[in-house]
């Protein structure tokens, strides 16, 4: 290898991955609430148990 060649050619800065605690925009939150409401309805119709976290999100105002 020459002095100008990096040993780490394919090393990139880490991608930014949003965490669960990251602040969401109002529009993203509305989408999440709507999706939770659909999940609750579908689970009721299929006789499945809905996670408590999803039920709580579905109760929030849009």
What characteristics describe this protein?
elongated, 62 residues, mainly alpha, 2 helices, 47% helix
Structure notes:
This protein starts with 25 loop residues before the first helix and ends with a helix. It has helices at 26-46, 52-59. It has 62 residues and is an all-alpha fold. The chain has two helices and no strands.
Short description:
By secondary structure, the chain is an all-alpha fold. It contains 2 helices and no strands.
Task: Briefly note the structural class of the backbone.
Answer: mainly alpha
Helix content: 40-55%
Please indicate the percent range of residues in DSSP E strands (runs of 2 or more). under 5%
Number of strands: 0
The backbone outline, from C-alpha atoms, is: elongated
Report low-confidence residues grouped into runs of 5 or more: none
Taking the alpha carbons of the first and last residues, their distance comes to: 59 Å
Give me the number of helical elements. Answer: 2
Series of secondary-structure elements, N-terminal to C-terminal: HH
Mean pLDDT: 85
Biggest sheet: strands, sense, closure?
none
Rg, rounded, reads 21 Å
Strand and helix map with partners:
Elements (H helix, E strand, L loop, with lengths): L25 H21 L5 H8 L3
């Amino acid at each position: 290898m020459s002095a100008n060649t990096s040993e780490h050619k394919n090393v990139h800065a880490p991608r930014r991955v949003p965490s669960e605690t990251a602040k969401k925009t109002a529009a993203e939150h509305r989408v999440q609430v709507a999706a939770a409401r659909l999940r609750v309805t579908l689970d009721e119709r299929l006789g499945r148990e809905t996670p408590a976290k999803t039920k709580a999100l579905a109760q929030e105002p849009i």
